[in-house]
Amino acid sequence: MNFDLTEEQRVWKKTVHDFVAKEIKPKAREVDENSEFNWDAVRKGGPVGLLGMSIPEEYGGSGVDSISMAIAMEELGWGCGSTALAFAAHNGLGTAPLANFGSEELKKKWLPLVADGKHKLGALALTEPGAGSDIQGGVITKAGRQGNEWIVNGAKMWCTNASIAEYIITLVRTDPRGGSKSLSMILVPTDTPGLTIGPAEKKMGLRGSPTHAVTYDNVRVPLENLVGPEGRGLQQALATLDAGRIAIGAISVGLAQSALEAAVDYARQRKAFGQPIAEFQAIQWKLANMATEIEIARTMIHKAAWIKDQRRPFNKEAAIAKLYATEMAERACYDAIQIHGGYGYSREYNVERMYRDARLMTIGEGTSEIQRLVIARHVLASE
Amino acid sequence: MKIIACIKQVPDSEAKVKAEGGQVTWGDAPLVINPFDEYAVEGALQQKEALGGTVTALCIGPESAKEALKHALAMGADEAILVSDPALANLDSVGAARILAVAIKKIGDADMVIFGRQTLDDGSGVTGAQTARVLGWPLLSLAASIKVQDGSVTVDRVIEEGRQTVSGKLPAILSVVQSIGEPRYPSFMGIRKASKATIPVWSLADLSENAPASVVARTELMNPPSEEVVCEIISGETPEAIAETLADKILAEKVL
Ligand SMILES: Cc1cc2nc3c(=O)[nH]c(=O)nc-3n(C[C@H](O)[C@H](O)[C@H](O)COP(=O)(O)OP(=O)(O)OC[C@H]3O[C@@H](n4cnc5c(N)ncnc54)[C@H](O)[C@@H]3O)c2cc1C
What local confidence, expressed as pLDDT, does residue A383 receive? Predict the structure, then answer.
């Protein structure tokens, strides 16, 4: 057993931390206030390797191990929830299925493009207006063959990055009879006629990360745009989400870490009843709880990532890590606001934004309920 | 084009450096690549991108200085060499220049050697010039831009009086200022390469050199006198009244 990061991971952590501290954290409030995406982070993050984490080096990526991915997502979350979510959706959802399941031609064509930071990003559309947790039963967006093309019709909801993406990998029903082999993934370039990307959703938080409804009206793409074999869409989606959960958990740890740092700074400097509030035991206990839970969450995230890197099943560990880290982040941000008193409720202080950002994490890429369902299945099956 | 970037490892800029028992200490503050030398590496990489060739990072320091060299490798340098010897522990800038000159010759075939404008610790800003002197190469210091053509190099120098364009024949020694361009961040690909790299360590014996004697002896080292800082918050009825009190106080203190 060894809890130390490797030299590569340690230097990577510092590099990403420095990058985020300089290029991302200072703009976090602005991108949220103005609902603006931080393009600069993409332009500068590409060469660092932050856009190619799921992409092997031969396709222009950085091909990082899962722990390094978690490290980067934590640092990004520490800097800015919005930018972190956009990067997570790009690396975990938009590029991972293509890198893992896509054909050689598709990989060569698209992956170097979206990894370099000079272009737009990748996106994945699973969720629909009528289907979120239940994608197997609920997805009605469909695709049929006509000549050498797929014709896609339907609608997707909550697609992160849609308006800032080169393509959207779309989960479609290719077999109307249904069942676990009736779904497939198709890569749809965002400039394809018939594809309409709605305006950015007005969200509680993460406003610097655009999320969109997308409609498909007789959208035609070549048959070769199928990602992975026909009928494997559900399995590919579930595998993608397993890894994505580690990323969402890692962002949550970053948000909580940032909230803790803000709370510590404030508690040291704010005085009440003649002393810094950090001297009150009630405040200290909050800080101690935050620090404890952050450490537990981070350790569990790294464990899930480590198991993934051993190429062993990590579905249960990823669910545990995501469940705990995301709910922990909400508690940590709640307490950080509490420690800030009235100022914590002000938009002038960052903890308010972190609280709003953290709220999504227990919903996206599988709600807490779904994580508990996954964990319970494992528990009941084996223990 | 064979380019050498000379770098040094220094205490982090946030370190609290002080004198203790005649020695400089910075506690357990981390050691980093001298921030000014990141610009040297950046300048070298820009030239490599423009002209082709290789960049070698060169450093004199203890074993721990490999970290600084790895930073240069992670930024994109092709190779790194550490000159390390217990006898070099208290090197002054003349000594450093002598050793660097020998190492540069041992590396061989260098067209350009690029320095940062100064270090964060000693900050003499003359090591580059002294190295040029030892090698007998032209020195083009404080370069804000570098252009190589037909065996000579032209740089825009940023000096107090303004800008000055100078050129010299290669091989040459250059030092660069911040306007050369923001140093690139290391990439994951670079970090991976750096963590696998083996960095050759050259001792004085490898260079067939003796430790250069210090020309200047440091006989005493003291902390700067501590300053008493008193903070006073001025209050008043109106901003004008506050400003007036403030102005009076500033005049009374003879600051203005
Ligand atoms: C900001 C944001 C970004 C997003 N980005 C993307 C994206 O890029 N791509 C994408 O495809 N999707 C994305 N989503 C969608 C997200 O993944 C879904 O919202 C999520 O999976 C939940 O689905 P739903 O909203 O349809 O809720 P539903 O599935 O309708 O769930 C409603 C409630 O019922 C509960 N529930 C459902 N089934 C069960 C069950 N079996 N047992 C117990 N409780 C259950 C849920 O936990 C939840 O509390 C994003 C969402 C948001 C808000």
Answer: 57
Q: What is the pLDDT of residues A295-309, one digit of tens each?
A: 999 999 999 999 999
Reported confidence tier of residue B90, pLDDT bands at 50, 70, 90: confident
B192: which chain A residues are within 8 Å (Cβ-Cβ)?
Answer: 8
Which residues of A, range 17-46, sit inside 8 Å of B by Cβ? Answer: 18-19, 44
For residue B187, list chain A residues with Cβ-Cβ distance below 8 A. 47-49, 62
Instruction: Say which DSSP state B49 is in.
Output: H
Instruction: Say whether A365 is catalytic.
Output: yes
How many angstroms separate the CA of residue B69 from the nearest CA in chain A? 13
Q: What is the pLDDT of residues A157-214, one digit of tens each?
A: 999 999 999 999 999 999 999 999 999 999 999 999 999 999 999 999 999 999 999 9
Domain B2-202: which topology?
Answer: Rossmann fold (3.40.50)
Query: Please, what is the average pLDDT of chain A?
Result: 97
Q: Sorting pLDDT into bands at 50, 70 and 90, what band is B230?
A: confident
Residue A7 to residue B74, Cβ atoms within 8 A: no
Q: Distance from the CA of A211 to the center of ligand 1, in angstroms?
A: 14
Mean pLDDT taken over chain B = 93
Q: What is the pLDDT of residues A315-343, one digit of tens each?
A: 999 999 999 999 999 999 999 999 999 99
CATH of the domain at A270: 1.20.140.10
Give the structural domain span for A28: 7-121
Q: What is the pLDDT of residue B229?
A: 86
Pick the atom of ligand 1 nearest to A171's CA.
11
**ipTM for the whole complex:** 0.86
Nearest to B191 among A11, A19, A47 (CB): A11
Count Cβ–Cβ pairs < 8 Å, chain A vs chain B. Answer: 38
The domain total for chain A is 3
Of A191, A213, A232, at which residue does a domain stop? A232
Q: CATH number of the domain at A167, please.
A: 2.40.110.10
C-alpha distances out from residue B99 to A75, B14, B37, B59, B204, Å:
41, 29, 18, 10, 9
**What's the rounded mean pLDDT across residues B49-71?**
96
CB contact under 8 A, B187 and A64: no
Distance of alpha carbon B186 from alpha carbon B75, whole angstroms: 4
Q: Are residues A261 and A211 in the same domain?
A: no
Q: When comparing pLDDT for B256 and A219, which is higher?
A: A219
